[in-house]
Design goal:
Mean pLDDT: 89
Radius of gyration: 23 Å
Low-confidence stretches: 10-18, 284-288
Shape: elongated
Largest sheet: 5 strands, antiparallel
Helix content: 10-25%
Order of helices and strands: HEHEEHEEEEHEEEEEEEEEEEEHEE
Strand order of the largest sheet: 3-2-5-8-10
Strand content: 35-45%
Number of helices: 5
Length: about 290
């Protein structure tokens, strides 16, 4: 497969350069390559472990999208892609990682572009976002130079999501409770900032053999947690528990750092008679991400 990919690059180079003659350089093009990288919070490349799908969008100097497509398996495997033929000018290349169930809206240009869950875009109940990643690269296309055959720039991805894991123990109801989060920002713009009128995510709730009710979801990477709450409701919609995400993160600031790329927010709610105990699950310091990823 690697030899096939290299052969493809050489064929493209031959095609480009064979169009050039010494008297007329109007058909000459340098090769412009975008390399893909994601190192999370470390120094080791983990792109292939975290990102399995990428949509790339190219915007011109006016902010209009001039090209948009998904990278193929070979490009993802070897972490680079050859840009399409572009006129001389300054471009911004935006890459969205893992948009499996994500709507990417670009109709009104770069400044108004955003991505959101398909369900939210359709006005339906949202259970989670994809585990999304984002990159934007300034990529100038210079006039052809016979001194440079191949030009590279790197798309350094950053996380666009938080993983949230909620355990509920001792629920005072005979029916399956629901676990949700309210006050969430449903959109992320093309500066990787979450925004928008707040909404509620209804987590898919699983009743495990241990007796725990577990909800998991990915949420957009908002920075203001003031009005974000985790709710546990009974079958009739009555609130059994309400936990402030802001206070929870403040109480566990030594264990959860929301400035990192890979952030897991694990919350355990335990009903004890008339009291509610809020803590982190007892994983005995083990570094695990329970069931997240695509």
């Amino acid at each position: 497969m690697k030899l096939k990919y290299i052969a493809m690059i050489f064929l493209l180079m031959w095609g480009l350069f064979s169009s050039c003659i010494s008297e007329d350089r109007s058909m000459c093009r340098n090769l412009h390559v975008l390399d893909l990288s994601y190192m999370g919070d470390g120094t080791t490349e983990i792109f292939s472990q975290k990102i399995g799908k990428v949509q790339m969008l190219i915007f011109d100097e006016t902010g209009q999208c001039v090209s948009r497509y998904f990278l193929n398996e070979t490009e993802l495997k070897y972490r680079h892609t050859l840009l399409p033929e572009l006129s001389v000018g300054n471009y911004k290349i935006v890459c969205i990682g893992n948009p499996y169930s994500t709507t990417i809206a670009v109709e009104d240009g770069l400044s108004a572009s955003y991505f959101t869950a398909d369900a939210h875009y359709a006005g339906q109940t949202v259970s989670t976002n994809d585990s999304l990643y984002f990159s934007v690269v300034d990529y100038p296309i210079e006039p052809y130079s016979d001194l440079i055959s191949e030009i590279h720039r790197t798309a350094h991805f950053k996380s666009s999501h938080y993983d949230v894991y909620v355990e509920v123990e001792g629920v005072p109801t005979t029916s399956t409770p629901s676990i949700s989060m309210v006050g969430l920002s449903p959109y992320t713009d093309f500066s990787n900032a979450a925004y928008g009128a707040v909404t509620e995510y209804q987590m898919e709730t699983v009743h495990e053999e241990s007796g725990l009710y577990v909800g998991k979801c990915c949420i957009m990477r908002h920075t203001d947690h003031t009005d974000v709450y985790v709710l546990v409701k009974d079958a009739q919609g009555n609130i059994l528990a309400s936990v402030s995400l802001k206070k929870f993160l403040e109480d566990h600031a030594d264990q959860i750092d929301c400035s990192k790329n890979e952030v897991l927010i694990p919350i355990k709610l335990k009903f004890k008679s008339a009291d509610l105990e809020v803590s982190m699950p007892d994983w005995e310091g083990t570094d695990i991400t329970p069931g997240f990823g695509n």
